[in-house]
Design a protein that fits this description.
The chain is built from 2 helices and 5 strands, in the order βααββββ. It is an alpha+beta fold and 106 residues long. It has a domain at 28-99: YaeB-like fold, CATH 3.30.2310.20. A 5-stranded mixed β-sheet has the order 1-5-4-3-2. Strand 2 (58-61) and strand 3 (68-74) form a beta hairpin. The longest helix has 9 residues, at 33-41.
Length: 106
């Protein structure tokens, strides 16, 4: 981990609030061009996305190496957010976000 990340290296383990999450969970967030387009297509905005990131309930590795799927919700409906940590910059890149409905992921 780079020196720039050292202040962000602790996991969040507050009893009753969060399970243990990796250090990248609290890094600065950067939006990919793809997710910016999907915001328009799927009728959500950056505030919605940041709320979903904050309220995420868990994560697991994505099929794409180096990426992770975050489980979250928007307006009471389940969503997933695909993120890719960038350790050299201590940035969490949001690749895409989609609702878990049949028409949600394109």
């Amino acid at each position: 981990m780079s020196e720039a990340c050292e202040g962000h290296s602790r996991v969040c383990d507050t009893p009753g609030r969060y399970p243990l999450y990796p250090a990248w969970w609290h890094w600065d967030v950067e939006m990919s061009p793809h997710v910016l387009k999907r915001m328009l297509d799927r009728s959500f905005n950056e505030t919605d996305l940041r709320l979903m990131l904050h309220d995420a309930r868990g994560y697991h590795p994505d099929v794409e190496p180096g990426r992770f799927v975050l489980s979250t919700a928007l307006d009471g409906e389940p969503w997933e957010i695909i993120v890719e940590p960038q350790p050299a910059e201590c940035v969490l890149v949001v690749v895409t976000a989609y609702p878990l409905s049949p028409e949600g992921r394109t």
